[in-house]
Design goal:
Layout lengths: L4 E3 L5 E3 H11 L26 E5 L14 E5 H7 L4 H6 L4
Antiparallel strand pairs: 1-2, 3-4
């Protein structure tokens, strides 16, 4: 399944852009890790800003996680890149949450 489709609890599918917006709103438009205020502007052919909202798999796909709303959070581009293979809970603890 493509990352462009995210499954919801009801079994319906959302496009990743809609999932990102819904998750961001439920998190108060803050990064799940560092609580920076997220930006939502994407520009073709330009690198993402460090505060740009990105989808973050809580359990990575490579470790059996799925493209499901319950397995996603929204983080800033900086934290998403820094997390690497660090488990979600351990990385989050690094920010005192």
């Amino acid at each position: 399944m493509s990352i462009a489709r995210i499954r919801t609890r009801s079994g319906a599918y959302l496009h990743k852009w809609e999932a990102r917006k819904q998750l961001g709103a439920s998190q108060g438009n803050l990064c799940v890790y560092c609580s920076v205020s997220l930006t939502w502007q994407f520009h073709a052919n330009k690198p993402l800003a460090l505060t740009c909202a990105t989808l973050e798999h809580i359990i990575p796909i490579a470790e059996g996680g799925q493209n499901h709303m319950d397995n996603l959070a929204v983080s800033c581009n900086r934290c998403n890149g820094r997390r690497g293979t660090t488990p979600h809970d351990l990385f989050k603890k690094g920010f005192g949450k």
